[in-house]
Design a protein that fits this description.
Elements lengths: L3 H11 L17 H20 L7 E7 L6 E3 L4 E11 L10 E2 L1 E3 L1 H7 L1 H6 L10 E4 L4 E5 L7 E8 L18 H15 L3 H23 L23
Parallel strand pairs: 5-6
Antiparallel strand pairs: 1-8, 2-7, 3-4, 3-8, 6-7
Helix pairs in contact: 1-2, 1-5, 2-5, 5-6
Length: about 240
């Protein structure tokens, strides 16, 4: 993965401008075109991340320890989206529970089918959860309400902070570094009011993002058959 200073210098090199110190000396206080290059890199990365919230390199596996009697839990502050099919009740040390995948429910489904049961249960909880549901408040809930400190594992897609320090690591893989630079060139050319050049770099940038999506997000690992198996029957031979 590339560092912030590496990306900034790659952009400055494309523009035939003076590079900044690779050891970070004075990186925080650069001015003029070097300061604009820093902003352009972050702007480019931000647009790439916003184009696809579920880039594979944004996947994060998280474990939530439940609290007896508590049904809803906050999602991580940096979560942009959650894979609701990955919620899994782990085998927890010191607790006699059976590990299993948790089926997901919509919030209306939970209200209609399970909330009354939870509301009528013991204040200390009912049992190990069987289902997970999404609330309208950046939280998730489990039902039945847990009666112990079970552990639930799930996958979410994080949204990283902007690069700040010279040695901050860019989360986008190096093989797509050229896409970041094309986006940076688009912003730099707009600053210079060179709209023709900015349009060329914008096209390259957008094509690069499309290529990233094809490579990273359109990989069909397998096909699930939807064929319904039926017993063989031949009407012509049925009487033989």
């Amino acid at each position: 993965m590339s560092t912030y200073v590496t990306l900034v210098n790659d952009l400055l090199k494309r523009m035939n401008e003076v590079n900044v110190d690779t050891a970070g000396d004075g990186f925080d206080t650069v001015r003029n075109v070097q300061a604009l290059a820093k902003d352009a890199i972050n702007n480019s990365i931000r647009l790439i991340l916003q184009d696809g919230q579920e880039w594979p390199f944004l996947k994060t596996t998280y474990t939530q320890t439940l609290t007896a009697g508590t049904r809803e839990y906050d999602l991580p502050a940096n979560a942009s989206s959650v894979d609701w099919d990955t919620f899994y009740l782990k085998k927890t040390s010191g607790i006699d529970n059976t590990p299993r995948a948790l089926k997901s429910l919509t919030y209306p489904e939970y209200i209609q089918r399970y909330r009354a049961i939870d509301d009528s249960g013991n204040a200390a909880g009912i049992s190990a959860p069987n289902f997970v549901y999404q609330t309208y408040e950046e939280k998730f809930g489990v039902t039945p309400i847990p009666d112990d400190a079970y552990e639930i594992e799930y996958v979410y897609f994080n949204y990283p902070d902007d690069l700040v320090a010279y040695n901050d690591i860019c989360i986008i893989p190096d093989r797509f570094k050229h896409v970041i630079i094309d986006g940076g060139m688009m912003f730099m050319m707009r600053f210079r009011s060179n709209e023709q050049s900015a349009a060329i770099h914008q096209q390259n940038f957008e094509n690069g993002i499309k290529a990233m999506r094809r490579v990273l997000m359109d990989d069909n690992m397998y096909l699930r058959s939807t064929v319904i198996a039926r017993s063989a029957f031949n009407g012509f031979n049925s009487g033989v």
